[in-house]
Every structure is written in structure tokens, then in C-alpha cells.
Design a protein that fits this description.
The protein is an alpha+beta fold and 248 residues long. The longest helix has 34 residues. It is globular and about 80 Å long. The N and C termini lie far apart (61 Å).
Length: 248
């Protein structure tokens, strides 16, 4: 086959692959939307019942069970939102609007929502974030970044203590999420920031997910003028550092 014909065939194959990827991302967006939307009224009903139970008997098994149910529904919604965000990023439709965001406030909300999951595996989460750190970012995107990093620390921290800290440095905030768990081999440290990749697989007996969390963390951080870095050694845990601009 002449070189020109081979080049034309290759271009056709590339175009077909791009169409297939676009169709897949559109399908994922549709599925995520349909999975997430019915949960909003369900979550509202659970919160109403939980509020009533906590007023009548805050320590009752019913109140505790409803609190756990609320956490499970919220986690389901977050996973569906992750799928939807992945599709939007790929399609260039995820618009991030910067605004002043108190970092300590968002960290507190994320840690509170994930505390039941951490307690289940025996991990304690310590927070050291100055109250005066105000970021210039989108609040929901920051929430998604922190949720993904703390969730990973819980999953792969092997029951160790987890630390969420932040410092001011040259007009930016450096946010660190650390654990003392299984760590990540150096050969995998670049790969895990790619889409549909994980540092550990099912064969290791570790929990698995979509393999998009760290990819999304990187894309969201970069879209807000920041970045993410990793420091890890096998058996010694991992520290993810997200850098985001401070509000002037």
C-alpha cells in the first residue's frame, strides 16, 4: 500500500476513535445525570426524617441509622457527580468561576462528611488549616479535589492517621493530604494522574473505583491556576500537595 494510502487510512482510524470517545463521554454524562437526579429528593427526605429523629432522640439507633443512610446517599451522589464532571472536562464544558473561598471552611465540611468512612477503617483525620487562608477558586471544584484526596487517603491509608494541612507560600496556598499507608511505587506516580488509572488494583485486595479521581484533581487544580504533586514511597504512605492561588 502506498504511503499516502496508509496515511489516509490512519487518519480515518483516528477520526473513528475520536468519534467513539465523544460518544462514550456523552453516554457517561447522560448516565451520570440520570443516576444523580433521582437522589436529590431522596436525600431531602432522609434529611427531613433525620432532623425529626435527632429532635426526639438524638442518640437513638434510628437517628444513627438515618445519619449513616444520609452519608451513603451523599457518597452515591458524589460518585455520580465525578462521572458527570469527567464528561464535562473532556467536552470542554466545565466552566470554573473563581471567587473568594475560605479554605478552612471547605476542609471542615469535607472532613465531616468523610469522618464515618474514616472511622470505619480506624483512621483519624487531623486538620491544620489557618482560618485566614482565602483561595481564589470555585468552591465546588475545591470540594471535589479535597473529597477525592481524603477519600483516597482513607482507602489506601491502611487505617493510619490522616492529616489535612495548609500553608501560605508566595501568593498561593499549599494544601497537603497525607497518610501513612501502603504508599505508591515511583513507577506508578505519574500514571495515576491519567484517566482510568489506579495505583493499586483489585489483585492487591485494595478498594477500586472509576480510576478518574486523581485525573480530575489534576485537571481541576490546573484549570484554577494551580497544580498537584505527589511524594510517596511504598510502605511509608503518600502526601498529595495541591497548590491554588490565594484571593488578593
Amino acid at each position: 500500500m502506498p504511503a499516502s494510502d496508509e496515511a489516509a487510512a490512519l487518519r480515518r482510524e483516528v477520526a473513528e476513535l475520536r468519534r467513539a470517545l465523544a460518544e462514550r463521554d456523552a453516554f457517561l454524562a447522560g448516565v451520570a445525570h440520570e443516576l444523580r437526579n433521582p437522589m436529590t429528593p431522596i436525600l431531602g427526605q432522609v434529611e427531613r426524617l433525620l432532623g425529626a429523629a435527632e429532635r426526639e432522640a438524638p442518640e437513638s439507633r434510628v437517628a444513627q441509622g438515618l445519619a449513616q443512610l444520609r452519608w451513603l446517599v451523599e457518597r452515591y451522589v458524589r460518585r455520580a457527580t465525578t462521572l458527570l464532571d469527567v464528561s464535562r472536562v473532556q467536552a470542554g464544558q466545565l466552566a470554573l468561576l473563581a471567587a473568594p473561598v475560605p479554605l478552612a471552611e471547605v476542609v471542615e465540611e469535607v472532613v465531616a462528611s468523610l469522618s464515618p468512612m474514616a472511622a470505619h477503617v480506624g483512621s483519624a483525620i487531623a486538620v491544620s488549616v489557618p482560618d485566614d487562608l482565602v483561595l481564589s477558586c470555585e468552591r465546588l471544584a475545591l470540594d471535589q479535589i479535597l473529597d477525592n484526596l481524603v477519600t483516597n487517603a482513607i482507602k489506601y491509608g491502611d487505617g493510619s492517621a490522616i492529616t489535612v494541612s495548609a500553608v501560605r507560600e508566595a501568593g498561593a496556598a499549599r494544601i497537603r493530604v497525607s497518610d501513612r499507608g501502603i504508599g505508591i511505587p515511583e513507577a506508578d506516580q505519574a500514571r495515576i494522574f491519567e484517566r482510568f488509572e489506579r495505583a493499586v488494583g483489585a489483585s492487591d485486595g485494595a478498594p477500586v473505583g472509576f480510576g478518574v479521581g486523581l485525573w480530575l484533581v489534576r485537571r481541576l487544580a490546573e484549570a484554577m491556576g494551580g497544580g498537584v504533586a505527589l511524594d510517596s514511597r511504598p510502605g511509608e504512605g503518600a502526601t498529595f500537595t495541591v497548590t491554588l492561588p490565594l484571593h488578593a
